[in-house]
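User: As part of a screening pipeline, I want to sanity-check one entry by hand. Below is the sequence and the SMILES for adenosine-5'-triphosphate. Please return the complex as structure tokens so I can compare it with the automated output.
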Amino acid sequence: MGAQRLVQGQRAELLQALCYGGSAEGLESVIDLLLAWEVLLSEDHQSLRTPSQPLYSSARALLDLACIQGESTCASLLAALNQVLPETQRAGLRFGDCRVPPQGAGPVPITAAQALRRDRPLLVRKLRGGVAAALKALLESGSFTVYDCDEVQLLLYTPSQQARRLLDLVQSKGESTAEVLLQHIQQTENKPSSPVNEEIPTECLLYQKKLRSSLSAQSHFLNTYGGTGSLSLDDIYTEVLLEVAKGSSEAQQQPLGLQDILGLVGTVNEEADLVLVSGEAGSGKSTLLQRLHLLWARGAALQDFLFLFPFSCRRLNSEERELSLKDLLFLHCCWPDQDQGLLFQYILDHPHKVIFTFDGMDEFRLGFSDEQRHCSPTLPAPVSILLFNLLQGSLMKGVRKVATSRPEAITPSLRGYLHKEVLLKGFSAGGSTAL
Ligand SMILES: Nc1ncnc2c1ncn2[C@@H]1O[C@H](COP(=O)(O)OP(=O)(O)OP(=O)(O)O)[C@@H](O)[C@H]1O
Ligand SMILES: [Mg+2]
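Assistant: Here is the complex for your manual check:
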């Protein structure tokens, strides 16, 4: 069957696969490939994907465009989908015998702008962890204004979307800007990867110390419903049984260790920040989080994270005030003794160094509301709005969030924002464990 008929005949299924989990990443990766293969022109691209356009409309527009352009565009679209979609989404779809154009088949790029277009998928991957550094280089060379940088770093964009926006803007500015960016990427790659840390301000280190000692004190004894008991967590804690939830591409349900909660295993959506640990009543979810807090406080786990902010959904129920994100962090977790402003700015600028935990989402009585988008870290909002926007990533994008819940309490709207789900099956009856 021809490619065009395959696209038309599977329209509903292709739309669903392209918009899987409510994430734009699949669609945008397909568009990256089509631009690189010069199947799509940048004018087509601009009309397909504007920030205000709902995801499904963009996906429909792409399928329509392919069908209007005919057989060869449809074949490329199927080839791109075949390359980009995870296995679980590919199953059941028919791609015909469309093939990925052989690498290097197109003309060798002679200009920097052409190279940016041809290598777009690779450049998005390279840039997504280093957008800030690339913007700095572009700003210093005079190629970008502060306004351009703000446009790229919109809080709503995921790291990959920022990288794409950066590439689009560079391309619109012409050859010399494209050269600056390529040179920057080359220099970054040639630099020996040094573990030398960027200097952390003393105020941040002092706050980290305070947070660690407060968390260590809170998690030393087993927390029970009545409060903190007298059993030492070290004495009672036994190994937990964790599994990747169904639906991830890891077919074999291998058991996981505590450190895998934040590892790569089981990832269903790289762009989302929320890891959900779900388990039945009494399976040990709160105790597991408490263990993670204690290990972080002792410097024995999660050492990539400078700050860990723990939240209890049960405690948040009693918060009646409207709070800003800043208040939520400092009032509910640990009050900074000095220079709140600097500390908060550091947190905003370094989201990958921060982790939030939310225990017992099923206990959150205020209910999650996805009606109100709230993106400002400094404006107050009701706690339920803050919480939902944090979990789905409108606020503090890039901060890793670990939440626990009984399975039945996870709403479909929240499910769309999961980085992965880990099932907690219980804990072993006796014997302590190393972690
Ligand atoms: N890893 C563990 N090792 C030893 N005992 C544990 C462990 N995890 C939990 N427990 C015991 O089980 C009790 C219940 O665990 P926990 O409160 O963590 O469950 P939960 O999944 O959070 O339950 P709920 O859904 O009601 O919030 C704890 O008070 C503790 O006595
Ligand atoms: Mg609990």
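Points to compare against the pipeline: Residues 121-174+183-194 form one domain. Residues 431-435 have pLDDT under 50 and may be disordered.
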